[in-house]
Design a protein that fits this description.
With 271 residues, the chain is α+β, with helices and mostly antiparallel strands. The chain folds into two domains: 3-57, no CATH class; 110-269, Rod shape-determining protein MreC, domain 2 (Thrombin, subunit H), CATH 2.40.10.350. 38% of the residues lie in helices and 29% in strands. It contains two helices and twelve strands. The strands form two sheets. The protein has a six-stranded antiparallel barrel with strand order 1-2-5-4-3-12. A hairpin with an 8-residue loop joins strand 7 and strand 8 (201-207). The chain starts with a helix and ends with a strand.
Length: 271
């Protein structure tokens, strides 16, 4: 800084200091009052800025709190949604079990409840393994009907102590004597061979060419052959075609084989 400026400034400051020191108490208060009046606008401005800063800081704090609360609410919402889905699953299971128990009470057969414990992806529509065997009352020789409250599933084949293989009606080796409700039409129902991985088609064969079946007609077990009792629902007619020698109907099974979990094995008639 220029020496010409510093020296006068220092001299002025010293003179003012000496004057202040020589002033009496009354004049000193007047000087202090005047000085306060000079700097008060700056103090007010500083106070206003400080207030605005505090408000801004408090606003940021509230924003952080809101963001934290929002994050907690999102987590809670996900937990509630998961719990709700679980409860819905339990409700569906309870409804299915209730229907199964009601069917078991109404059925004229003695039914042994069983659960599916194994299923091969390569034979998904052909076979299942259940957790019941001859130690649980099943016949060692197999050939016992397996069903649900919705309709026919298949029949037992290989039976061990506490497990049994069930061949499904969608398999071409499982043949079922059947009739069409409300008609005199009878035939043999069996699964039809399809390419690997495709949903199998189930056909009702040896119908009369003049049967003229309509979509939605019920197909039931006829009881012929001694394996399957009469009157068990198999499914509904999807399509009917008159062929050269007979009539053929494509059947939609009453049971959804993709959702099978629990079944019943018919082990005899109720006394």
């Amino acid at each position: 800084m220029n020496r010409r400026i510093i020296v006068p400034s220092v001299a002025t400051f010293l003179v003012l200091t000496l004057l202040v020191l020589t002033l009496g108490p009354h004049k000193m208060r007047r000087v202090q009052s005047g000085f306060l009046g000079m700097i008060s606008p700056f103090l007010k401005t500083g106070s206003s800025l400080d207030k605005k800063y505090r408000e801004f800081r408090d606003g940021l704090k509230k924003l952080d709190e809101l963001e934290a609360e929002n994050a907690r609410l999102k987590v809670t919402n996900k937990e509630l949604s998961t719990t709700n889905q679980t409860l819905r699953g339990y409700e569906v299971d309870n409804q299915q079990l209730r229907k199964a128990l009601q069917y078991r009470e109404r059925a004229i057969f003695t039914l042994k409840p069983a659960r599916i414990i194994a299923r091969d992806a390569s034979t998904w529509y052909n076979k299942i393994v259940i957790d019941r065997g001859f130690a649980d009352g099943l016949d060692k020789n197999g050939d016992q009907p397996v069903l649900t409250e919705a309709g026919l599933v298949g029949k037992t084949t290989v039976v061990d102590d506490h497990a049994a293989t069930v061949v499904l009606i969608a398999d071409e080796t499982c043949k079922v004597a059947a009739n069409v409700e409300g008609t005199r039409e009878q035939g043999i129902l069996r699964g039809e061979r399809v390419s690997n991985g495709a949903v199998p088609s189930i056909g009702l064969h040896f119908l009369s060419k003049q049967a003229g079946l309509k979509p939605g007609q019920n197909v039931l077990t006829s009881g012929t052959g001694g394996v399957f009792p009469a009157g068990v629902l198999i499914g509904q007619v999807k399509e009917f075609k008159a062929r050269e020698l007979d009539g053929h109907a494509t059947i939609i099974p009453a049971v959804d084989f993709t959702k099978l979990e629990d079944v019943f094995v018919v082990i005899g008639k109720k006394p």
